[in-house]
Amino acid sequence: MAVKQILMIGDETLKGSSEAVDLSKDPVDLYLRDLMDTLHHFQRKKGLGRAIAGPQIGLMKKIICMESSGERIVMINPEIIRKSSETFKVWDSCFSADAAFFGMTLRHREITVEYYDETSKRCYRTFSGDLSELFQHEIDHLRGVLFTDRIIDNRIIMRSEWEKIMTRREVNYESKNQKN
User: Fold this and answer.
1) Ranges in the chain, pLDDT < 70
2) Is the pTM of this model over 0.70?
3) How far apart are CA 116 and CA 32, in angstroms?
4) Annotated catalytic, 86?
């Protein structure tokens, strides 16, 4: 198991730009193992989290691992090639903030990403809603952009307040659906 330390906001490494992964020379399997082990460790420890990008463990390579709800997506050298004009506001946080606080960000409702998967196959995939937000967040990491750079109203809330907001939304959603 290769759980790596997650770099925290304030570490200048997180503000750097990542280099492309050389699929023929770089130890991609090692990168993936380190990222997935660290992701799983954080998920067990904090009870949330869906994805991690190389820079968060000091790996300045363009690589992202996502595992959530039984789905696993590996993106190597991802590039957003299309963004919808429609945007939405979303509470965002980060492993590099220890998922301790959240800020409201503005993200594109839908994106299309070109990337290579773990078998070096070129992929094109369109993501919408929460996955669109997630991959915008992770791809930002590869360019040294943090979610704190994207907060739109200068307001930060602690995780406990975010959990209260999310619980109220679930209750309101369930009530609305029971009436229909």
Assistant:
1) 1, 169-180
2) yes
3) 13
4) no
